[in-house]
Structure formats: structure tokens, C-alpha cells
Amino acid sequence: MNVFQFIVQNRGEVMELTLEHLWMVAISTLLAVLIGIPLGILITRWPRWNKPVLGSANIIQTIPSLALFGFLLPVPWIGARADRLAILALTLYALLPLIRNTYAGITGVDASVLEAGRGMGMTNRQLLFQVELPLALGVIIAGVRVAAVISVGLATIAAAIGAGGLGEYIFRGLAMVNNQLILAGAIPAAALALLADVSLGWLEKRLNPS
User: Which phi and psi (to 5°) does residue 54 adopt?
Assistant: First the structure.
């Protein structure tokens, strides 16, 4: 029996694990967007926060995923549930591309466009929401795209702490030295990453000013 026959015969369990995987990725990416984009805006307004914010996000990226799970275990309320812990870890990993792309998108807006807006009497707040963010939206979506793909891949590691997802098959297959089980988790996870990349890539192209 090949891996595709295995997936078809166990489609109920595969679908359940896929939905768990998607839920972790969706919630963590949403939280990262709600945190990362405001932080990216913050460092465009107060450059002195640039190094601390981007430096912290860079440091988080260098921490191995299993080590980060271990660091977060003692955190009250979070460490009590594996899914909460996994979502927090995925959120932290997704911050860097969102902060960096938001910053790059806003700072990349043509200065002459901003001057024209100021000449029309627009306030800094109006410039941000009516000029800078709309023009930077394509770059910001590119950050969301990277964050989502990262989260899909890292969510497989969450199975190591009992958070579920497609990583369950991968770790079960490793324990049993069963390539079929490993591929039953890896192939749907790769398909999810590809789907996220293609769909958000299409959105990014639509939002990029021509």
C-alpha cells in the first residue's frame, strides 16, 4: 500500500489532523499580524526602537523550535495547554517577516507622494492610513505570505509536545521507522504550504501598485 492509498483509507484522521494544523497556523498568523504590523509601524515613527524590535525578532528566529517550546512551558496558562504553547511559539516565529516587511513597505513610499499629501493638509495619521499603508500593502502581504509558509512548516514540530496537527504522522513514522507514515504527514503539510504561498502570492501581485 502506497502513501496515497494510506491517506485515502485514513482520510477521516488525515482531515482531522489537517484541520488541527490549519487552526494552529491560522490563529498564530492572525496574532502575528495583529502584533507585527503595529510594531512595524512603530519603528517607522520612532526609529530609536528599530534595533530593539528587529533585534528581538531576529533572536527569536535563531532559537530552535523545540528549545522555544521548552522555554515557554513554565509560562502560566500558556504552558498548561499544548495547543496554546504551540500557537504562541508559531506567533513569535512569524513576527520577523511581518515587522520587517511593514517597515520596508512604509519607508519605501516615495517621499514626493508624502510631500504632496502634506501639501494638501493631511495629518500624519491621515498620511499613514490613506497613503502609506495602502501603498505598502503589497509588501506587507508578502510578509504575511512568508509568515504563513513558515508557520505551516513549523507547526509540524508542535506534534512533539502533543499539540496535534500533521506532525503527528511524521513523529509516529519516525518512531516506527515507517516512511509511509512520514510522507502521510509531510505531503499534506507541503500542499498546505504551497497553497498558502500561491494564494497569498496572487493577492500580493494584485495589491502591488503597477
Answer: -70, -35
Tens digits of residue pLDDT in 81-130: 788 889 999 999 999 999 999 999 999 999 899 999 888 989 889 999 99
Q: Which amino acid is at 30?
A: L
Question: Secondary structure of the chain: what % helix, strand, coil (to 5)?
Answer: 85, 0, 15
Answer whether 87's CB lies under 8 Å from 157's CB: no
Q: Are 42 and 49 in contact (CB under 8 A)?
A: yes
Asked if 123 and 151 count as a contact pair (C-beta separation under 8 A), the reply is: no
pLDDT in tens, 132-190: 999 999 999 999 999 999 999 999 988 888 888 999 999 999 999 899 999 999 999 99
What pLDDT shows up at residue 79? Answer: 59
List all residues 6 or more positions away from 204 whose beta carbon is below 8 Å from its beta carbon: 138, 141, 142, 145
| 160 CB neighbour count, 10 Å cutoff | 16
Contacts of 86 (CB under 8 A, 6+ apart): 24, 28, 69, 155, 158, 161, 163, 165
* C-alpha to C-alpha distance for 123 and 72, rounded to whole angstroms: 42
CB atoms within 10 A of CB 11: 11
Residue 151 vs residues 51, 58, 121, 180: alpha-carbon distances, Å:
24, 16, 42, 23
Check if the beta carbon of residue 189 is closer than 8 Å to that of residue 9: no
* C-beta separation of 102 from 143 below 8 A: yes
Can you tell me which residue has the cell 533585534? 55
